[in-house]
Amino acid sequence: MAPTQAMRVAGDRPRRRKHVPGQLIVRLKPAAARQIAATSLQATTSRALMAAMPDDVRGPIDFLRDNFGLQSMKPLFVVGDDEAPAQPQAMALAAVHRSIARSATAPPREALAGFQIVRLKDGKVDAGILKRLRASRAVDLVEPVPNRWLSAADPMKIRQWGLRAIRWFDRPRPGAGRVHVAVLDSGVDAGHPDLVDAIEDYRHDGNGARDFLGHGTHVSGTIAAVVNNSAGIAGLANCRLHCWKVFDDPKRAGDDENFNFDFYSKALAAALDSNIKVINLSIGGEDHSKTEATAFAELIDAGVIISTAMGNEFEDGNPKEYPAGYADTIGVGAVDESHRRASFSNTGKHIKLVAPGVNILSTVPRVKASFADHTSYDSWPGTSMATPHVTGAAALVYINKTKSRAAGLAVARRLIATATKLPAMRGKDFTPEYGAGLLDVAAALGRAKPASKSGRKAAKKTAKKAAKAKSARKGRK
To answer: For residue 264, what are the β-bridge partners?
Structure first.
């Protein structure tokens, strides 16, 4: 997550909302959703549709419509579902049936069936209302939509201190042109000269193509800016990028980003049965979501590595943030040029390792973006900037492995196990500040790590013994 121009100092940042106002996630039990789907396909009249809707389903819907101004329902985790949501005056029973039917039949996994995103005119939804909705026997889950926010030979390669810190230059790197990586962020400048040849596809759904914030473009450059193209910087891996814009375009100049969980769910679902092996999530928020956690469990089971930002709120209470807090994701903290924890970088038992996250030079849009001081290239701080270092490294290690749960977890373990222990860790294998240590690309790719001082002494002693034994054998001959 990269601080905005007006929010470079963590203490100056206003407290963000934990939830997206006016939105709920409701999951019907898959059996109930399938029952409605089967009936609605045959029903042709409003009376038939009404008869097909069980009371346990219709009750919560009527309650939301009558008391909170139900505006729309849309199925989550449905790829390619670009149907416009029903408007408030058109939120008829047929639209509800259609949404429920799609949620039962269209998601790529049974574990993701039945989920709906519900938009309400009245955004004041409290715990009592959630409890009432959960009381329905047809409802499996109800939760607020969790908010997420953004966590921020080539002529400029010499300025990329982060690549030196993680030993990117220390050994030849394999070609990662067959590895596909997803970036779910604020968008991307797909015509940037350092990115145009790296982007496989770019989905921005109902929004424009422009990356107004610049955040997604910066993250993408660290992962995959084309190497030795005589332009700008070098990315960690020459992989193929799939970019999704999961934040809405600002309605007015200076507006903050607006997280769109609907677009986000489509992107996560699209990665399941695809060739995508790694997802970069330089985003964070303080609320745990069962819906999001379910999607992540499916992705990890499918062999997808999820690289996540720990968050930049250490000086604002150091909250546990998600998605970094979910099991089996790679939570990444940030260090500065001296290999000390960046002052803003969150800590916790869920951190896996750290990567460079201060003064990170990368690509930004060619048109001035709100997060950027410059165009084309800019240096930013943030755990968002640390996370794509790990994403790129994961792509390099995953090259010759078939996508599977075992392979994905093995790559994640490799990155963690080969991390360099830092002096600030005081000899420990793990600390809440640094996890297992600093990302080491050369070690992860198989090169032996530099020996410690004590290790070098032991090696010299062993060599002397071997030389003496060899001399003795020659003497006996």
So the answer is: none
Q: Are 321 and 311 in contact (CB under 8 A)?
A: yes
List the helix and strand counts (H, then E) for the chain: 13, 17
Could you identify the residue written with the tokens 């968002």?
Answer: 384
Q: Which two tokens stand for residue 14?
A: 């206003």
Q: What is the pTM of this model?
A: 0.83
Q: Quick check: is 140 catalytic?
A: no
CA distance 279 to 302: 12
What's the pLDDT band for 51 if we cut at 50, 70, 90?
Answer: low
Residues 176-222 have pLDDT tens digits of 888 999 999 999 999 999 999 999 999 998 899 999 999 999 999 99
280-336 residue pLDDT tens: 999 999 999 999 999 999 999 999 999 999 999 999 999 999 999 999 999 999 999
262 sits in which H/E element: helix 261-272
CA 390 vs CA 128, 226, 396: distances in Å: 42, 17, 10
SS3 290: helix
Q: In the beta sheet, which residues pair with residue 257?
A: none
The answer to which of 90-99, 101-110, 240-249, 359-368 has the lowest mean pLDDT is 90-99
CA distance 243 to 263: 12
Strand segments, DSSP code E, in 319-419 are: 330-335, 351-356, 360-363, 377-380
The neighbour count for residue 472, using CB atoms within 10 Å, is: 9
Give dist(CA 248, CA 263) in Å, integer: 9
Catalytic residue among 136, 186, 370, 384: 384
- Indicate which residue of 215, 218, 350, 389 is catalytic: 215
Residue 215 annotated among the catalytic residues of the structure: yes
Report the amino acid identity of residue 274.
S
From residue 23, alpha-carbon distances to 68, 131, 402 in Å are: 11, 16, 38
- How far is the C-alpha of 123 from the C-alpha of 136, rounded, in Å? 21
Question: Beta strand 19-28 with 199-203: parallel, antiparallel or unpaired?
Answer: unpaired
8 A C-beta contact, residue 183 and residue 456: no
Catalytic: 454? no
SS3 (DSSP) at 243: strand
Selecting among 185, 262, 378, 440, the annotated active-site residue is 185
In tens, the pLDDT along 254-274 reads 666 789 999 999 999 999 999
pLDDT digits (tens, 9 = 90+) for 338-375: 999 999 999 999 999 999 999 999 999 999 998 888 99
